């Protein structure tokens, strides 16, 4: 299939996805509350796009939506050219979760997009799908080598796991809330999250008040479904405290894959493996992050195999 035809198919898919979107645009708002920072993100459209691109079950959508939203919240603490990657490695049937964010752009995927488990206590059983294992967070910077920290999973529900990771691996007292609301048909009704980060020398009074406010705040996905903006949610989390809204910026799905990047990955394969692939008339490579497909002819694979000799 020609690149032109592939591009045309991708454009049709993109149009279908865009036409399915309703509601407010995704956004992340940052604020200072007392001696702490609060970041709140609305990611409904982004999670819906991920669900459609990967053809995910209700459960997989909730798990990936939480992870990608968490990555966006952590990325909000960094510079635009820096990024965050989150990997959930558990022994549950979902087979692992990967989410990445740079600035306001995010992408991700799960090992098993068809995963299904019966609801637990009336909610999607994300913890059961993830199982026991570890959470790893990698921070990418243009100036230094990537740093990766790892912690044991608390319950596999993602939010508590991130909270524990930040305290254990990065010594950051924090609170993370994540949620994805999916209807019976599998459509994402609401998605988002918050991240409360204690600043250096944060007072005990501030921590106590924030903890009290968090306990009295409904699920973030329910608030977003009711029309609450990130700013309004920040003011709920910071009630009875001085709140200063810093800024807001849009969020969207984005993948950095391209035919050139995929070819560069193929070039790293051993010559024997490239020759094996060249036995087929065409080799199709699918990007795990966005499900885009790239085709390489037998002649192209043979050329790569020849270049591998060098």
Please tell me what the overall shape is. Answer: globular
How are strands sequenced across the largest beta sheet? 7-6-3-4-5-11
Q: Give the tally of β-strands.
A: 13
**Uncertain regions spanning at least 5 consecutive residues:** 15-20
Give the N-terminus to C-terminus distance in angstroms. 29 Å
SS content category: alpha+beta
Oligomer: single chain
Count of alpha/pi helices: 11
Biggest sheet character: 6 strands, mixed
Average pLDDT across residues? 90
In N-to-C order, the SSE pattern is: HEEHHEEEHEEHEEHHHEEHHEEH
Descriptive notes:
It is a single chain. With 310 residues, the chain is an alpha+beta fold. It has helices at residues 3-19, 44-54, 58-75, 126-130, 159-169, 204-215, 220-225, 230-237, 259-266, 271-277, 298-308; strands at residues 27-33, 36-42, 83-90, 97-102, 105-110, 133-140, 147-152, 174-182, 188-198, 243-250, 252-253, 282-286, 293-297. Helices cover 37% and strands 28% of the residues. The strands form 3 sheets. It has a 6-stranded mixed beta sheet with strand order 7-6-3-4-5-11, covered by helices on one side. Strand 3 (83-90) and strand 4 (97-102) form a beta hairpin. The longest helix has 18 residues, at 58-75. The chain is globular and about 70 Å long.
How would the blueprint of this fold be written?
Layout: H1 3-19, E1 27-33, E2 36-42, H2 44-54, H3 58-75, E3 83-90, E4 97-102, E5 105-110, H4 126-130, E6 133-140, E7 147-152, H5 159-169, E8 174-182, E9 188-198, H6 204-215, H7 220-225, H8 230-237, E10 243-250, E11 252-253, H9 259-266, H10 271-277, E12 282-286, E13 293-297, H11 298-308
Parallel strand pairs: 5-11
Antiparallel strand pairs: 1-2, 1-10, 2-9, 3-4, 3-6, 4-5, 6-7, 8-9, 12-13
Helix pairs in contact: 2-3, 10-11
């Amino acid at each position: 299939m020609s690149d032109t035809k592939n591009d045309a198919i991708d454009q049709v898919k993109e149009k279908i996805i865009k036409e399915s979107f309703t509601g407010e645009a995704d956004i992340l708002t940052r604020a200072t509350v007392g001696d702490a920072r609060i970041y709140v993100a609305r990611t409904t459209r982004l999670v819906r796009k991920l669900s459609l691109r990967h053809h995910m079950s209700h459960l997989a959508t909730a798990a990936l939506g939480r992870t990608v939203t968490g990555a966006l919240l952590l990325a909000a603490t960094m510079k635009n050219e820096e990024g965050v990657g989150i990997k959930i490695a558990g022994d549950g049937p979902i087979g692992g979760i990967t989410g990445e964010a740079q600035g306001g752009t995010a992408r991700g995927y799960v090992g098993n997009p068809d995963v299904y488990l019966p609801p637990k206590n009336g909610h999607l059983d994300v913890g059961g799908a993830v199982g026991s294992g570890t959470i790893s967070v990698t921070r990418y910077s243009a100036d230094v080598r990537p740093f990766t920290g790892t912690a044991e999973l608390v319950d596999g529900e993602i939010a508590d796991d991130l909270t524990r990771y930040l305290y254990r691996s990065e010594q950051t007292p924090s609170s993370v809330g994540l949620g994805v609301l999916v209807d019976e048909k599998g459509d994402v009704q609401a998605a988002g999250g918050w991240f409360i980060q204690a600043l250096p020398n944060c007072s005990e009074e501030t921590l106590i008040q924030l903890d009290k406010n968090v306990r009295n705040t409904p699920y973030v996905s329910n608030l977003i479904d009711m029309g609450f903006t990130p700013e309004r949610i920040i003011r709920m989390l910071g009630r009875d405290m001085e709140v200063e809204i810093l800024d807001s910026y849009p969020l969207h799905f984005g993948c950095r894959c391209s035919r050139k990047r995929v070819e560069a990955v193929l070039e790293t394969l051993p010559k024997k493996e490239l020759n094996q692939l060249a036995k087929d008339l065409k080799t199709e490579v699918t990007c795990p992050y966005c499900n885009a497909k790239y085709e390489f002819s037998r002649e192209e694979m043979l050329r790569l195999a020849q270049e591998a000799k060098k």
